[in-house]
Amino acid sequence: MEYALASGESGGITGLAYLSDLAAFAEWYRQQPETIHVSVITDTFRRLNMSMHGDDPAEYRLPASEELAAQLLLLYELSLPFGLDLNNQIDVDRSATRMTVAIQTLSSNELIALDRRALRWLEDNAPNIARAESAGGALMFAYLGQRNIVAMLLATTIALVGISLVLIMALRSWRLGLSSLVPNLVPGALGFGIWGWAVGEVGFSLSMVTAMTLGIVVDDTVHFLSKYRRARHELGHASPDAVRVAFHTVGRALVTTSLVLVAGFLVVSFSSFELNANMGRLTALVIALALLADFFLLPPLLMKIDADPGTSAPVRPRHRT
Q1: Burial 272-297, CB ≥16 within 10 A → b, else e
Q2: Domain range annotation of the chain
Q3: In 3D, which of 272, 287, 143, 279 has the Cα closest to residue 202?
Q4: Mind listing the pLDDT tens digit for each residue in 80-131?
Q5: Which CATH class is domain 152-305?
Q6: N or C: which terminus of the chain carries fewer CB neighbours within 10 A?
Q7: How do strand 131-135 and strand 2-6 relate by DSSP bridges?
Q8: 3-state secondary structure of 28
């Protein structure tokens, strides 16, 4: 994690008040259990001050005056080998410095919470740091993953509602259209639930699985419902018989396509790249659950909500003697 800490004025990084707040912030970060290492310019000032006092450990502290701090900084810059400078730690007009924090591997929520704690500490305890900005690859992907997950959930909800409305119009039945929500929604919810129970973490790549699998899940449901409606309204079958016709017509095709897709994504799960491997595992799981939902959840739901008037349960034919 990177922090750009501005003093608010040109040449202000050698001010004693600014250096004191910067050192206190670095010390606060070192006390956090997630921290491994902190790289900050105040450590350089302390080492320089100790070196100029005969390497006396008692002088490992910040310079006593702003003038001394500026002179030590100039001396240090002049002593650097050719091609090296402090531009990676200090900006050109000496108004801001960079602090780098190496932390343990954290989840996105933990990383964002740590960053917010740090910025809140700066607001409450570092009045001489005029502006603080946090950055870094890990923090960027944490925010990106969090926003992506929220956006995916919202977009998936809107898509499911829209798909149900289209199915209501296409199938000309509000009951069939609304019933499609169940097999379309359950596989993703179950898949992420099982993943959360087994792994406990959803990364950036996994947040896209719902959108990736939605089309496949909906496709299975549409095929089953279309054949069910045809058997129900065009062939005149009762609800249980219409379910059997749908199974006989598209059951084998749904099993075949689902098994092929599951096998394909399971191959991806053997990737040495962790993001691709997890995406393959979760996608295969969701597709398999979608097939189970269409075969074991949708048929009894259809027989329940689309039963003939006057029948509360499917009527079994009686054998004549």
Answers
A1: eeeeeebbbbbbbbbbbbbbebbbeb
A2: 2-135, 152-305
A3: 279
A4: 887 677 888 888 888 999 999 999 988 888 899 999 999 999 999 999 999 9
A5: mainly alpha
A6: C
A7: antiparallel
A8: helix
